[in-house]
Amino acid sequence: MTVSKKASQTKMQAARKRRTREHVIEALSVAHLQYFVANAGFTMASSKEDYGYDLVVTTFDRDGYMDPMAVYVQLKASERLTPLADGVSYCFDLDVRDDNQWADEINPVFLILYEASSIRAYWLYFQEYLRQAGGPKPKKGARTIRVRVPKGNRVKTSFFRHARHLKQKVHAELGGGKADA
To answer: What is the SS3 assignment for the chain?
Structure first.
């Protein structure tokens, strides 16, 4: 291959869009969650636009009827998660705009961190996290807020069943009826 032909080929490649490792990890994270959602008997829709929620999970009762309300998921994927020195949690610097939006959300919101290297994901029920004593409060002018996601909160099929139960509790508290098991 001549130098000018190689330079032309390199220039042509540079002008094209390229699938990166980040794109692959993002697809793997969605597929990982999709398995557990489907295994729980639920459905999941993803949004092309990101306004604070990547996925909406619709749950169903034992008879296959759709439940009221939804479970919102913000999914963050990376090659490796950042463990905290406490050894029991991962940290994530969350955009303050997400914190502001999720704090006012009626539907349960879960931040899910996916680690491609271990093919594992971990969840944090955000509104409950904010209600805990000493919950994080953004500093004035801050762009991010650091949250802790427990290593013990591993995403599995049982997690999505648990998320359904939490959603039903919220629905009942709003006067929408009794939560079933």
So the answer is: CCHHHHHHHHHHHHCCCCCCHHHHHHHHHHHHHHHHHHHCCCEEEECCCCCCCCEEEECECCCCCECCCCEEEEEEEECCCEECCCCCEEEEEEEHHHHHHHHCCCCCEEEEEEECCCCEEEEEEHHHHHHCCCCCCCCCCCCEEEEEEECCCECCHHHHHHHHHHHHHHHHHCCCCCCCC
49: domain CATH number is 3.40.1350.10
This prediction has a pTM of 0.86
Residue 7 lies in a domain: no
Measured between alpha carbons, how far is 54 from 129 in angstroms, rounded to an integer? 19
Domain range enclosing 99? 19-173
Bridge partner residues of 44 (DSSP): 57
Tokens read off for 112: 């899910």
* β-strands 71-78, 109-115 pairing: parallel
pLDDT in tens, 114-165: 999 999 999 999 999 988 866 777 888 899 999 999 999 999 999 999 999 9
For residue 1, being part of any structural domain is answered with: no
The first and second tokens of residue 36, run together, are 């557990």
Nearest Cα neighbor of 55 from 120, 104, 112 is 112
